[in-house]
């Protein structure tokens, strides 16, 4: 059974169809990259899958369950976590607190499962105030786990665990965001341009991290512009342009697909140049 | 049928006056992206300037209108210079807070100069009425209609056909692009404020003529009604603002005919809330919109909070307990007030600071707590301790339920919604006479007592307040350092990212408002029982702004800061009164407004820093 199945997904804004009849499925443990020029609809696709945007038509099935109409806050508890294109960390919270917020859906001792929302909230407040042993232990365990996650980023984040994230570099904020996502123990991780704004060394580090996560068995859907990273990591690649999936397959096949080259480089002017040159250009430009 | 036509004419005339307000607010919202809370005060200033021209100088009406518009235009430019321009790179909430402070200052100045008593205008124009089929229309009605039509036409020509008008429209569409193309956006803002304020002042003068009464506080509710009218048509949309104003005028007019004039303002505020919640982009907007990406971390001033050693805190608490031994009764009652306002500030800093929901209707919570416990004591004869506990719980639940519809709002909209809710609470109290006694209020409320001991003396009341403040502060500290505090702060920083991590926004905002209501309810109960009476004016919007100033002063979300802020704002004016004499006390409120403006400008993180 596929972990994620996207069927005929469509979303338009006014006259613009940002995502047009997109279908694919993601097997457990697989890493799929979504590439395509700016404005191709990649982030809209992410927003639809993570339920931040309403679908016009189509269906999303995650882990055997139809999630097409669920609220965005209900997904992380089911095992889906995401990062955002421009990085959305909680600026005034420390790195550690950011990661702990990521584990919010896993809190159980302090969040009694009471069916009535008012009573549940009251119970949660009282437990937070009285702080019985179980609650303290849960918080301690999560803290220890948060440090383990921070350790994945070598010594980039550990020394800054208590600093507010607004004081961090851009790259470190992106790392914090991924650490926060990992704290939810996701089955499926959606990464939206995790290496944007990173230099080659940092990009290489991120590549190793994503590989590590993949080896740990996390299924990953990746939006990325750096093609060398995509080629090294992906099991399959989906290419989008103007809302459509224009190519879908193994990284090597996609790379040589003329439609992909055309989408990236424009439609008419440069067709006289030899294909190898175009490919080189593709590498440089994206 | 005649009544229907009469009310239609009335409604359209009042709608025309609102339109002058709402158009100004729409212009400012469009170019400066700011909800200008000082606009109501400009309107009030217009009325008073007009009154002065007419009664002191005996100016003819036309000249009076010119002077009013000129004065208010200058005032508007001043507001832009002080409240907006220096704050453009600050947190988004900063200009809003600054205009609240400026509005407070202007209202207080009017009270000092013209006394808080209502003034009346001498008759300025003929009261002749022309029959119009089934109804009739007065000269004043015609004047108001023609003034707004002419202003509207002039404004249209200005915006459409002059270079400055182009610049204003360009800035409203895309500020950065306009700046790139060489538009001086500061000048655009200045001109916009001048025009908007001239219209607002004119509107104030016309209202003063229409109802024949001026009060220094008339601007507050009028400003809010201007927002309501503008929101109906979609904020920042000038034609929408005019249609919204006419609609609001009509609804009010018919409503007053059906229910009575004390309900007049209630319609506007209920409509304000309904529109905010159901159609925050106005009734003409369509389509679903994605929530815009917030500028992460710019909503609240970022800072490192000042760490105060525990030993200092314990030492200060012990000293506070010993204070009654040396202090006289007068100062003890001042300190008691400071402690009780400290509880209020604690309550506000939880929602406005920790959760980032800038509530400006917190006095409503005091009133709910005070009335509940007064009624429980007077009508049911419940002992004080039980009444206190029940009142706090009622305030928690009501406070949460009242604000719940506004949970989906953010930023400036939360502030407007909570002001509206505060006014609705106050107007409900005024109109529900069988329960609340209306404007007469409730009297002979028993003083606080526990197990037969009555807290009559200043000393005992002081100790009771101190114990409650310290107890509640400790509880709040425990709450804020738990996962709930972390979750609320995450919501404050970025709602979308918080949702992505499974945070149910309504649940935690509900917890924040309930906890805040519980704490504010306790402050309301003790204040009410120590005053021994309460009416609809006891906890008015001035107290909401005062509480907000305390929170900003101490540092948002900062528990010790909020108590410090309350202490300073209550004690400093008393010290100054000691030094400068009794006459200083009229300037106290002025000082509060000034402090708010200064802190927002120079130390937005407050004395002890945002947490």
How many helices of chain B in DSSP terms?
A: 24
CATH topology of chain A: the name is: Rossmann fold
Order of helices and strands of chain B: HHHHEEHHHHHHHHHHHHHEEHHHHHHH
Uncertain stretches of 5 or more adjacent residues of chain B: 287-298
- Broad CATH class of the largest domain in chain B: Mainly Alpha
Strand content of chain B: under 5%
Number of helices of chain A: 10
Number of domains of chain A: 1
Label this structure with key terms:
A: 286 residues, Rossmann fold, 4-stranded antiparallel sheet, 10 helices, B: 611 residues, mainly alpha, ABC transporter involved in vitamin B12 uptake, BtuC, 2 domains, two-stranded antiparallel ribbon, 24 helices, 4 strands, globular
Describe this structure in words.
The complex is a heterodimer of chains A (286) and B (611). With 286 residues, chain A is an alpha/beta fold. Chain A has one domain: P-loop containing nucleotide triphosphate hydrolases (Rossmann fold). Chain A is built from 10 helices and 10 strands. Chain A has helices at residues 42-49, 95-102, 117-130, 133-151, 170-182, 200-215, 227-233, 251-256, 258-265, 275-285, and strands at 4-13, 16-26, 31-35, 57-62, 65-66, 80-82, 188-192, 219-223, 236-241, 244-249. In chain A, the strands form 2 sheets. In chain A, strands 6-7-8-3-9-10 form a 6-stranded mixed β-sheet, sandwiched between helices. By secondary structure, chain B is mostly helical. Chain B folds into 2 domains: 2-278, ABC transporter involved in vitamin B12 uptake, BtuC (Orthogonal Bundle), CATH 1.10.3470; 325-539, no CATH class. Chain B is 72% helix and 2% strand. Chain B is globular and about 70 Å long. The model of chain B is unreliable at 287-298 (pLDDT under 50). The A-B interface holds A 14, 47, 50, 52-54, 71-77, 81-82, 84, 86-93, 97-98, 100-102, 104-105, 107, 110, 117, 120-121, 124-125, 128-129, 131, 139, 164, 166, 180, 184 and B 287-288, 290, 293, 296-297, 300, 302, 304, 475, 478-479, 482-484, 486-487, 489-490, 492-494, 496-505, 507, 510-511, 514-515, 610.
